[in-house]
């Protein structure tokens, strides 16, 4: 079995005891009088927990952002009125500007 490394957060409780928490598994923690005792207890708990567990890696594809306007693409493709409107807009844009 390969050895794994886990990070343990050591803290002092309000009453002066030591708290050890496995950062990767925040619900795996122990409180003891000394830091070393807390580490030993949390190590035992983690070993017991992992004895009947399996660590696997999975890959999840990143979500592809979708353009919200894509559902409207081409909805006026065969609309003769829309074709007239776009010709009118195009003509208006290409006309030289006249000053009042």
Quick structural gist:
It is built from 2 helices and 3 strands; from the N terminus they run βββαα. It has helices at residues 35-51, 80-94, and strands at residues 8-12, 18-22, 29-32.
Total count of helical runs of at least 4 residues: 2
Instruction: Write down how many β-strands occur, each being a DSSP E stretch of 2 or more residues.
Output: 3
Largest sheet: 3 strands, antiparallel
Query: What is the CA–CA distance across the termini?
Result: 86 Å
Strand content: 5-15%
Largest sheet, order of strands side by side?
Answer: 1-2-3
- What number is the mean pLDDT? 89
Q: Pairing-aware structural class of the strands and helices?
A: alpha+beta
Molecular structure report:
This protein has 100 residues and is α+β, with helices and mostly antiparallel strands. It contains 2 helices and 3 strands. The model has no long low-confidence stretch (mean pLDDT 89). Strands 1-2-3 form a 3-stranded antiparallel beta sheet, with helices on one face. Strand 2 and strand 3 form a beta hairpin.
Write a concise keyword list for the protein shown above.
100 residues; single chain; 2 helices; 3-stranded antiparallel sheet; alpha+beta; elongated
